[in-house]
Recover the amino acids of this structure.
């Protein structure tokens, strides 16, 4: 019998005995082997402490890890009538694969949809409705959706495959001439204009959601998706309080509008702001709102005017800087009134015309809006105080009236 | 089938199933490693007949695969320090995978390796129970011993490992 086996034998023999008997038994079985006795006693002292130790398998971590792996594991497999060829990328909301439609013999992009997709029927329907509505526009700058399906437990969306690169990649490659930036921007604005005209807001305009084909054509991806993953109960704004939650689903926050960062209601103009941010980055290679932490980025978006484009990109016409500045106005009321207006301005720049934005209020004075969120907050607090105060004013007069009869009963 | 051949199969299957779990309709109830392994087994065994129809063998390999995945991750996470790429979806540093949590897994794995050199079966019991999420009975059937034996092994191994980790 090896040493551990002996220790174990004694251990099990005494572990459930009451203290006294334990001692007796240990003396008997260990004799004068002090080392053995010491070893057994030391282990016994951990029996109770060990209680829940390692009793719960790390299931949550296992799930997250398994699912987070790059998806080479489903490459080569078949989902429904799609054969997965390779992984195209992965973002905050799932993974995207190049697949071959084995019925129609065409390439498609398959996007595995996030878990939130399946968690609420209502959300799912809304997403499908929006995604299909935008796709139905047949706009040349909006990706075409082929189908949205659930097969073998996977929720996925099959879309047109765009053989090109994301704007994200292009920016990383180096400076983009301002003329190209204007053309890119004009196409995005045109896609937004079409979507807005049927009441759909993108909410997540960012370079990773914009594909550029070699011929310069642009396709905007992921319409309707941002809303899908917004926290439940909210009509669509991102919940800024939930950023640390485990189910954090958003990718980057750098392209958010101030109203998004503040968790306020959104309208079409949030997309105009985000496109402004994208254009700023395309022109200068730098993000206008940066920071070491999420909080710093939010603060920059809400309160800080970015460095002037003219300084960072001297060869870009001043009008272009003006257009981007106008799109990125903190106050939605000071931005372009519509994506159509922005589209016109960008198209004008692309074709060498001077945009007619001189008549509109130029880039708003920083100080003006900066104080606005503070103001709104102050107003909210004031209202809250009023409400609470009114409770205090009304309650005491209500309450005693009800209590009085009882009080008199008990004293009499 | 040899372990080296079976491992990648099991590995892949587990990943696919986990992904499906997290992206599919099963979200209502919480993820359980053991359930995942069962499903993966049914799928692999049910399809083409393979010579590892041997269920016990499969479960053993699956638990080992889980151990690899978790420990590899914990080790890399620990060395890579905090503050990675904020733009990717995070296995959130603050919730699911705290540094303490990864430290715990790395330390447990070391202690477990020591235990295995002294008593291989006890090592397997812990691997199946903790990394494979299996019950006493499941563990017993994989190791082809009685549930009582697993129970005893488990209790002793817990005390032994805990001492190893605290002292
Ligand atoms: N239809 C498509 N054709 C070709 N490539 C695509 C297509 N859709 C997505 N991709 C590629 O897959 C990548 C990941 O897309 P995905 O939308 O999952 O991530 P993301 O845009 O970075 O984040 P988010 O989930 O917030 O949208 C894209 O950046 C792009 O490279
Ligand atoms: Mg995307």
């Amino acid at each position: 019998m090896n040493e551990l086996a002996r220790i174990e034998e004694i251990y099990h023999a005494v572990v459930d005995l009451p203290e006294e008997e334990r001692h007796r038994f240990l003396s008997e079985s260990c004799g004068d082997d002090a080392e053995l006795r010491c070893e057994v006693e030391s282990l016994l002292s951990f029996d109770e402490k060990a209680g829940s130790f390692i009793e719960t398998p790390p299931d949550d971590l296992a799930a997250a890890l398994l699912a987070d792996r790059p998806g080479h594991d489903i490459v080569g497999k078949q989902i429904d009538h799609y054969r997965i060829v390779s992984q195209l990328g992965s973002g905050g909301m799932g993974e995207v694969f190049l697949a071959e439609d084995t019925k129609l013999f065409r390439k498609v992009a398959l996007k595995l949809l996030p878990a939130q997709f399946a968690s609420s029927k209502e959300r799912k329907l809304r997403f499908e409705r929006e995604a299909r509505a935008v796709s139905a526009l047949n706009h040349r700058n909006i990706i075409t959706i082929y189908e949205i399906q659930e097969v073998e437990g996977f929720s996925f969306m099959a879309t047109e495959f765009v053989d090109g690169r994301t704007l994200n990649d292009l920016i990383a490659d180096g400076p983009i001439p301002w003329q190209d930036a204007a053309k890119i921007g004009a196409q995005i604005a045109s896609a937004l204009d079409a979507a807005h005209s049927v009441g759909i807001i993108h909410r997540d305009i960012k370079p990773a959601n914009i594909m550029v084909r070699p011929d310069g054509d642009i396709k905007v991806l992921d319409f309707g998706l941002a809303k899908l993953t917004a926290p439940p109960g909210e009509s669509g704004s991102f919940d800024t309080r939930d950023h640390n939650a485990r189910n954090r689903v958003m990718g980057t926050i750098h392209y958010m509008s101030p109203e998004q960062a503040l968790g306020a209601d959104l309208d079409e103009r949030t997309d105009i702001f985000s496109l402004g941010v994208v254009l700023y980055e395309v022109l200068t290679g730098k993000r206008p709102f940066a920071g070491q932490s999420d909080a710093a980025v939010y603060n920059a978006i809400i309160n800080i005017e970015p460095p002037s484009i003219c300084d960072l990109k001297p060869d870009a016409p001043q009008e272009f800087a003006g257009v981007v500045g106008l799109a990125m106005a903190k106050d939605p009321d000071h931005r372009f009134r519509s994506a159509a207006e922005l589209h016109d301005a960008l198209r004008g720049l692309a074709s060498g015309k001077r945009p007619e934005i001189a008549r509109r209020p130029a880039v708003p004075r920083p100080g003006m809006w900066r104080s606005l969120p503070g103001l709104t907050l102050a107003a909210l607090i004031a209202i809250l105080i009023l409400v609470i105060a009114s409770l205090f004013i009304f309650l005491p007069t209500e309450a005693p009236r009800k209590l009085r009869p009882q009080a008199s009963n008990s004293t009499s | 089938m040899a372990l080296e051949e079976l491992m990648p199969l099991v590995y892949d299957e587990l990943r696919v199933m986990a992904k499906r779990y997290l992206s599919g309709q099963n979200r209502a109830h919480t993820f359980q490693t053991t359930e995942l392994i069962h499903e993966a087994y049914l799928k692999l065994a049910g399809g083409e007949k393979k010579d590892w129809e041997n269920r016990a063998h499969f479960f053993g390999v699956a638990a080992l695969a889980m151990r690899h995945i978790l420990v590899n991750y914990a080790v890399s996470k620990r060395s890579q320090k905090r503050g990675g790429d904020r733009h990717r979806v995070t296995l959130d540093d603050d919730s699911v995978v705290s540094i303490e949590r990864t430290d715990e897994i790395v330390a447990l794995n070391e202690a477990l390796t020591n235990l295995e050199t002294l008593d291989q079966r006890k090592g397997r019991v812990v691997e199946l129970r903790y990394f494979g999420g299996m019950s006493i009975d499941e563990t017993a059937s994989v190791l082809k011993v009685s549930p009582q034996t697993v129970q005893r092994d488990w209790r002793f191994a817990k005390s032994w490992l805990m001492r190893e980790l605290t002292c």
Q: What stands out?
A: Chain A has 16 helices and nine strands. Confidence is low (pLDDT under 50) at residues 231-250, 361-375, 390-412 of chain A.
